[in-house]
Design goal:
The complex is a heterodimer. Chain A is 39% helix and 24% strand. By secondary structure, chain A is of the alpha+beta class. Chain A folds into 2 domains: 115 residues, 60s Ribosomal Protein L30, Chain: A (2-Layer Sandwich), CATH 3.30.1330; 122 residues, no CATH class. In chain A, the strands form 2 sheets. Chain A has a 5-stranded mixed sheet with strand order 2-1-3-8-9. Chain A is globular. The two termini of chain A are 22 Å apart. Chain B is an alpha/beta fold. Chain B has a single domain, classed as Fe-S hydro-lyase, tartrate dehydratase beta-type, catalytic domain (fumarase, Alpha-Beta Barrel), CATH 3.20.130. A 5-stranded mixed β-barrel of chain B has the order 2-3-6-7-9. In chain B, helix 4 links the parallel strand 6 and strand 7. The chains are: A alpha+beta, B alpha/beta.
Chain lengths: 291, 202
């Protein structure tokens, strides 16, 4: 399959706008689950407003949240796919800028020191583009994530040591949830990276935070840890928006990687309740949009 | 727990009557303000031509569309999606907003900290919690963008919105020293030991 880069540019524009407007079904189901079990009156009222907002966004064809985020594009190139890699990156960037100018979206991206805004949602190294390979035949998948800053500001890395064991990981996650309070726009998906190098650990936390609800860590140890942490953080009573209640997190997600004999790194990256993502899948049959 | 409908601006006495867990709905003028707006106003000596006395400001940087100026869009901007942001980043600007400009109400998410609470007591102010990430809904409460100042900072300009039925907003910090965030943070910290024990942490 030869990839048409014009089609990729169009899709990358479309993906940004779609992601900002429609929540994936797993997140909607997550809201229904939390709403059913919330016992705090304020928490229940806030969840009700969030659920109503999802419907208003769909009915008025508007963005769910004002924060257009930092745009992230995750690309998975399957087998038998013929694509000009450099051209692909240019097409993604062009699609991102066009979405911003043509919709128009708020460009939330500025130079880190001058704070200058190019009004394209682009800048040095942004959009963030991750390119990986999959074993799917004749398939190119692009996932778009507009990562909101309230939750992104709730990010931490701790280079714990082996003598501190898994207890250090568990304690760190609980303390990050407490520290974050209402600032990360709970209920959140708490993404936890365990192991790797410092940068890989933080990347794992982001992957965990943006994984669909209901998915499990493919490492059995990670899966056990995320289940235990999900129950534990929801005992804290932080609640929706940090104003109290049962629904502090939809879930804690863990991703793991092997690490060094001297290291025990743990990272936390949070995803706010507006857990937005959209996906375009290119096959010889055309482009299909989903989550 | 009482509900109040305010037409802005409001006097200090009305703001001082508010207690945490009351709710407020605003009608009239609402100002939008953000990190860069306040960095320029309070660190770089810029001033606004707007009179903020007795008004509410919301921590926001809206999605707007540039349009031809008209009766419906006097400033030449139409609101696209307007919500809020995490307030705590702007903690150090509460005091000058109140002391220099007479702002009475600050709207945002996640709460403000100790110095803001002290400023609320000193000058008569409240923090009103709006639901973060519910901007599609909140945009329906905005009638128009009446005016904009410091436009070079777009989207972090100082926006003047006309709002109708903007709320209910929860009084989460009041002028009597009460903060729901402080109370809830303390309560959550009190549950830390039990949460760690449930994880088998020694």
């Amino acid at each position: 399959m030869k990839v048409d880069l014009k089609q990729v540019e169009e899709a990358c524009k479309e993906l940004y706008i779609r992601a900002l407007k429609m929540l994936p079904p797993d997140i909607k189901q997550g809201f229904a689950r939390l709403d059913k079990t919330e016992t705090d009156a304020t928490g229940k009222a806030i969840l009700g407003t969030m659920i109503k907002n999802i419907k208003v966004a769909e009915d008025t064809d508007n963005l769910l949240c004002q924060d257009t985020g930092i745009p992230i594009y995750n690309v998975a190139i399957g087998r038998g796919v013929n694509v000009d890699g450099y051209g692909l990156k240019q097409a993604i960037r062009a699609g991102c800028a066009r979405a911003t100018r043509e919709y128009p979206l708020r460009s939330s991206v500025v130079h880190p020191m001058t704070r200058a805004n190019e009004h394209t949602s682009c800048g040095r190294g942004v959009p963030v583009i991750h390119i990986d390979f999959s074993n799917l035949n004749q398939t190119l998948a692009i996932e778009m994530i507009p990562k909101g800053s309230g939750s992104e500001n709730s990010s931490w890395l701790k280079m714990a040591i082996p003598a501190e064991g898994v207890d250090a990981i568990k304690t760190f996650v609980v303390d990050c949830v407490l520290e974050s309070g209402g600032k990360s726009c709970p209920p959140t998906i708490v993404g936890v990276g365990v192991g790797g190098t410092a940068d890989l650990c933080v990347h794992l936390a982001k992957q965990a935070a943006t994984r669909p609800l209901g998915s499990r860590c493919t490492d059995r140890e990670g899966a056990r840890l995320e289940q235990a942490l999900s129950a534990a953080v929801n005992q804290l009573g932080v609640g929706p928006q940090g104003l109290g209640g049962d629904a502090t997190a939809f879930a804690v997600h863990v991703e793991t990687a092997a690490t060094h004999i001297t290291m025990n790194p743990v990272a936390v990256n949070m995803q706010c309740h507006s857990a937005r993502r959209a996906r375009a899948t290119f096959t010889p049959g055309g482009v299909e949009y989903g989550f | 727990m009482a509900h109040y409908d305010f037409s802005t601006p409001v006097g200090e006495a009305a703001v001082r009557a508010l207690r945490v867990n009351d709710t407020v709905t605003l009608n009239g003028t609402l100002y939008g303000i953000r990190d860069a707006t306040q960095i320029h106003m309070f660190d770089r000596g810029r001033k606004t031509r707007f009179d903020l006395a007795g008004h509410a400001v919301i921590h926001t940087a809206p999605n707007v569309k540039k349009v031809e100026p008209s009766a419906a869009h006097p400033a030449g901007y139409a609101p696209v999606c307007v919500g809020t942001t995490t307030s705590a980043r702007m903690e150090r600007f509460t005091r000058p907003l109140m002391s220099q400009y007479g702002v009475g109400m600050i709207i945002g998410k996640g709460g403000l900290l100790a110095d803001s609470l002290a400023a609320f007591a000193e000058f008569g102010g409240v923090y009103l919690a709006i639901v973060g990430g519910a901007a599609a809904l909140e945009t329906t409460w905005i009638e128009q963008i009446e005016d904009v100042d410091l436009i070079d900072l777009n989207p972090e300009s100082l926006w003047r919105f006309r709002v109708k039925g903007f709320g209910p907003l929860l009084v989460a910090m009041d002028s009597h020293g009460a903060s729901l965030y402080t109370e809830l943070k303390k309560a959550a910290a009190g549950r830390r030991a039990a949460a760690l024990a449930s994880l088998g942490v020694k």
